[in-house]
Amino acid sequence: MIILGGVLVMATASAQTPPPPTTPTPAQTTTQTDDPFPDGPGKSAFMKVCANCHAPDKVVGPLKTRAEWSQTIDDMARFGAEATDQEFAQIQDYLVAHFSPIGVNKATAKELAATLDVPAAVAEAIVKYREEKGPFASADDLTKVPGLETAKVDARKKRLVF
Ligand code: HEC
């Protein structure tokens, strides 16, 4: 009986409680859905070059503007990161597309195309809408722009700056 009891205790102790399902609070639902490293042009160069000395997660904490990413990449090259010019350019575009603030009320169409990762025509529609109706107040406001997909905005909510 004692042995059985011991086995039972051990079995119970080693039975791992499964981690609770990831149900973020409603406020976070939309911001937590995006992959830390979304697929897209430049991802393979980024993974190849930027995961050598540190985990790629270390790279993408705070959002950085294009100029700041450019500076970081220069720093990494000085530390010894090796890539062709083309790869560094792809990495920069990838980081700007996924890890930079989106200044919805101030950015030019060109900047919006790069940071929101939308075609030039959609970026121009955003600027036109802003000029006609005044500054955007919220993500919902932004989704009223014709041609701009709601899913696109939702996936980038965290990065929108008003
Ligand atoms: C040769 C090694 C090496 C490679 C390759 C490398 N890094 Fe780094 N990285 C470092 C070191 C060392 C630090 C810590 C420096 C510090 O704390 O100032 C660092 C820190 C960072 C940081 C945090 C500090 C900051 O400047 O914001 C970022 C972001 C970063 N790296 C981005 C990148 C990116 C993007 C790439 C790919 C282009 C890359 N790293 C490739 C060595 C490397």
In a nutshell, what does this entry contain?
This protein is mainly α and 162 residues long. It has ten helices and two strands; from the N terminus they run ααααααβααααβ. It has a two-stranded parallel sheet.
Mean pLDDT: 85
Bound molecules: heme C
CATH topology of the largest domain: Cytochrome Bc1 Complex, Chain D, domain 2
Q: How many distinct beta strands? A: 2
CATH homology-level superfamily of the largest domain: Cytochrome c-like domain
Total DSSP helices: 10
Which CATH first-tier class of the largest domain would you pick? Mainly Alpha
Name the beta content range: under 5%
| Content-based structural category | mainly alpha
* Proportion of helical residues: 55-70%
Low-confidence stretches: 5-15, 23-33
Global morphology: elongated
Distance between the termini: 68 Å
What profile does the largest beta sheet have?
Answer: 2 strands, parallel
- From the alpha-carbon coordinates, what is the Rg to the nearest angstrom? 22 Å
